[in-house]
Amino acid sequence: MEGSDITVGSGGALTRDQDGIWQRRRLVDVFMTVLITVSALIGVAVLLAILAYVVINGAPALNLDFFTQRPLPYGEVGGGVAPAILGTLYMLFVAGLIGVPIGVGTGIYLSEYAGTRLAPAVRFTIDLIAGLPSIVIGVFVWALLVRHLVGHFSGLAGSVALAIVMVPIITRTVEEVLRLVPGSLREAALALGVPRWRTILRVVLPTARSGVTTGVVLAMARAGGETAPLLLTSLGNQFFNTNLLQPMAALPVQIYNYASSPFADWHTKAWGGALVLIATIGVLSLVTRLATRGQRPG
Amino acid sequence: MRFGFKWSLLAVLLVVVLAACTNTSTTAPTATASSGVSQAPGAQGTASQTSSVTGATSGRPAGAGLINGPYPGEARNLNGAGATFPAVLYTKWFSDYAQLTGVQINYQSIGSGGGIKAISDRTVDFGASDAPLTDEQLKAVKGGQLLHIPTTLGGVAVTYNIPGVSKQLKFTPETLSGIFLGTITKWNDPKLVADNPDAGLPGNNIVVVHRSDGSGTTNIFTDYLSNVSSDWKSKVGVGTSVNWPVGLGEKGNEGVSAGVKQNPNSIGYVEVIYAIQNKLGVGLLKNKAGNFVQPSTETVSEAAAGVAQSIAPDLRASIVNAPGANAYPIAGLTYILIYQQQTDKAKAIALTRMLWWGIHDGQKYTTELGYSPLPQEIVSKVEDKILSVTVNGQQAFPGK
Questions:
Q1: Left (φ > 0), alpha (ψ -120 to 50) or beta: where does A285 sit?
Q2: Measuring CA to CA, which of A192, B74, B243, B248 is 20 to 30 A from B264?
Q3: Is A202 in Cβ contact with B5 (below 8 Å)?
Q4: ipTM confidence
């Protein structure tokens, strides 16, 4: 805008033709600015609309029973989804225990040992896993764990399925953020005689810690919302269960079942469940942001 | 301090898990403890009464009231999956049974097809299906002899949602098979209007809603249609999932009733209770005797009246298009599927006790939830099946 103003101001030296070009450019500029602003606003509006819709529909479901009681028999009004909230947190934690070390480790390998012959193959494989529909992961874990190793539906099988969902997301994020760490930092550490593994652990990783944490939280959020892999693995449970080898309820599965039910009370509870799921993921990412903020180097 | 970020991450996860753990340890045990205390005295009182009354009739254990509290050595958890048709009854049963005995029976309504698959693979302790297994399916099971334990009877309601039509609609075998075959496509089709002259049927297209998953309800419904329509028998046939000529697929009885509720001018078929709970229109059906009947506890029981004498030794039965004057034509038994040779003693005890409770004490729940109780002759046949379950070569049912 500023540039075009200047040219128009010194317009005496310009021909009519050039004046038209500037005029058009300014119009295009204004048009594009409006277009981009509008699309940005639409993006934000969609998010706000979803949030508002979930809050409006879900808030009436939230009461003490919702968070503390187990589901009631079909068609009875009341009860809660406590086993599902607990099950989701439990399975996410176990999935994190399995998925985070593997994901972070693979990310480090891809970034720090990128020159090895294995790295492209690993990267290709991780990309493939990232592209797998999550139901396929569910079927795989069902065939491996539910039918054979464990022999029945279990929270453990659900956790493994969620871990597989998490690994590629963590790996890709960790690889990217570690690449952003300046090579000079690594060289400085190595020049001081620090071994390579210590350089990675104490220089590279801490520098990229907020990025690594973001990757982990992103993966947790994605896995926390997965329904398909859990349908075939953790099955669901209307009772409280903390035994990993027994079927376990999960919030997304509960939402899926309740939303497709014919009961109005369950529809409200499905909205409430969606609200809790969004809030949990929001709080999780907020807490991790706060926890990592003060420690950002330099 | 260099590892600070790791520790904070770990701390966040720990906090989340600790919060979750304290949540269970505070809520779950108190709930069971309080119910246990309140149940114990009353339950024991009824036990001594009933056993003294019924114990004298025969050598077999008494029926109702026998299971009245926890049993030492039985499993605390059982897992089952399958039919959505009896899910309303089962979730009610298992909720009350947990209060009575402390045994938590997790039931997931994934459809009869899923239930048959799960018990065949032994991924659950019991399966549930409204469709008896076919001979081929029985051959494919992994764990030996599979028993069919009938638990209740139910009717499949023809349910519809036509805005502006408040009069209860009548369907004949011809109109019903015509609608589901796609030969009757409008609500004001002359055949439908002939049966319902003053219903004010609109000229809208009929939206057919059927099951998308493997379903025992579908099996009962298609069994009926094949019985009454040779066209249906040759073009579509009977099964837990068939090639539907027309319509939208929905998952479970829950899904079909939701589908009918949400689509104007639709028609579907669901277990009676799903239609009642959703205040959906329920059609009157013309039975074999030529009367238009409403699905209800009485009409479904009448359909089952003849079955007790003719039922096969393995209790697999079809009761569609039954002859009684007021027999509802689309009815069926629903089954729990268990292995005769159990391998885990604690689970075998819990399973047989639960079934014993279900076919006796559990029957009183059936009518209020829109199902029908098992006829007495069938109950005694089911008792024999439960007593025939063994674990390590011994009878699994402890008799108490």
A1: alpha
A2: B243
A3: no
A4: 0.78
